[in-house]
Amino acid sequence: MTIVWELAKQILTNQMVVAPIVAWLLAQVIKTAIDSLRRQRLSLKMLFGPGGMPSAHSALVAGLATSTALSQGVDSPLFGITLVLAMIVMYDAAGVRQAVDRQSEILTHILTHVPRTPDDFDRFLMGLVGHTRVQVVAGGLLGIAVAVLFS
Q: Rounded to two decimals, what is the model's pTM?
């Protein structure tokens, strides 16, 4: 049990783990607040859901890359890996996933205009899977800021 406690302590004091997770959590809380204000009611579905402003995925990977740069240096192989990972995740969030959003909108429109039975209601697709470029940039900047604060 002592080994487990020691491992947990090491993980919880590792800025390269904590900063990205805090950035992700903060982004989730911010996008929940923004969505709740927009809808004028508390919207907890955004707390764990994808999409929205800012991008939590971008905040997490930008926080990871920044923490790595600050602790290992920008010339380290580990920073190179985290930077490339961040670029892939952020590209995916703004590009590929945005296309999935559009397809989801179109299919949902089709489903709502086709006669259906009560069982068909379960077939509606969830929208807001991806992010706009602004949401990705905002998430990235949030991740960088949190990582700098943790350094």
A: 0.71
Upper half-sphere CA count for residue 75 (Cβ side, 13 Å)? 0
Residues 115 and 70 in one domain: no
Q: Could you report the per-residue pLDDT of 100-124, keeping only the tens digit for each?
A: 767 777 777 776 766 565 555 544 5
Q: How many Å apart are CA 130 and CA 102, to the nearest integer?
A: 9
Helices marked H in the chain: 2-12, 15-39, 45-48, 56-72, 77-94, 96-112, 133-150
Lookup: tokens for 124: 């509606």
Q: How many domains does the chain have?
A: 2
Co-location of 110 and 48 in the same domain: no
